[in-house]
C-alpha cells in the first residue's frame, strides 16, 4: 500500500489497523524499530523524549497506540519520506 494511502487509513480513525501497517507508517516518518515489544524511536533531536510503543495483538495494532503515533507526527510536523 502506498505511504499516503496508508496514512489516510490511519487518519480515518479505523480501529482495524494491522500492526504491520502501523509499523510501516512509523518508518515512513523516519521512526526506527528498537526492541520487542516494538518501541518506535526517532533520530530527530527534538523528539528524543517521544517514544511510541506498538503492540502486536493478534496481528492488529491497538487503536490508542496508533492515535499516539499520529499525535507525535502532528506535534512535530513530520513529513513522509519519499515514495519508493
For the sheet with most strands, the description reads:
3 strands, antiparallel
Structural class: alpha+beta
Order of helices and strands: HHEEEEEH
Coarse morphology: globular
Helix content: 25-40%
The low-confidence runs, each spanning 5 or more residues with pLDDT under 50, are none
Strand order of the largest sheet: 1-2-3
Domains, number: 1
What is the residue-averaged pLDDT? 82
Number of helices: 3
Report Rg: 12 Å
Structural summary, described in words:
With 84 residues, the chain is α+β, with helices and mostly antiparallel strands. The chain has helices at residues 3-11, 19-28, 63-75, and strands at 31-33, 39-42, 52-53, 56-57, 60-61. The strands form two sheets. It has a three-stranded antiparallel beta sheet. A two-stranded antiparallel ribbon has the order 4-5. The longest helix has 13 residues, at 63-75. It is globular, with a radius of gyration of 12 Å. The protein starts with a helix and ends in a 9-residue tail after the last helix. The model has no long low-confidence stretch (mean pLDDT 82).
What are the key terms here?
84 residues, alpha+beta, two-stranded antiparallel sheet, 3 helices
Write the layout of secondary structure elements.
Blueprint: H1 3-11, H2 19-28, E1 31-33, E2 39-42, E3 52-53, E4 56-57, E5 60-61, H3 63-75
Antiparallel strand pairs: 1-2, 2-3, 4-5
Helix pairs in contact: 1-2
Amino acid at each position: 500500500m502506498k505511504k499516503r494511502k496508508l496514512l489516510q487509513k490511519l487518519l480515518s480513525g479505523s480501529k482495524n489497523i494491522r500492526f504491520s501497517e502501523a509499523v510501516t507508517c512509523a518508518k515512513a516518518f523516519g521512526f526506527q524499530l528498537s526492541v520487542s515489544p516494538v518501541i518506535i524511536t526517532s533520530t530527530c533531536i527534538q523528539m528524543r523524549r517521544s517514544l511510541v510503543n506498538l503492540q502486536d495483538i493478534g496481528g492488529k495494532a491497538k487503536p490508542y497506540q496508533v492515535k499516539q503515533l499520529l499525535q507525535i507526527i502532528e506535534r512535530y510536523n513530520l513529513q513522509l519520506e519519499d515514495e519508493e
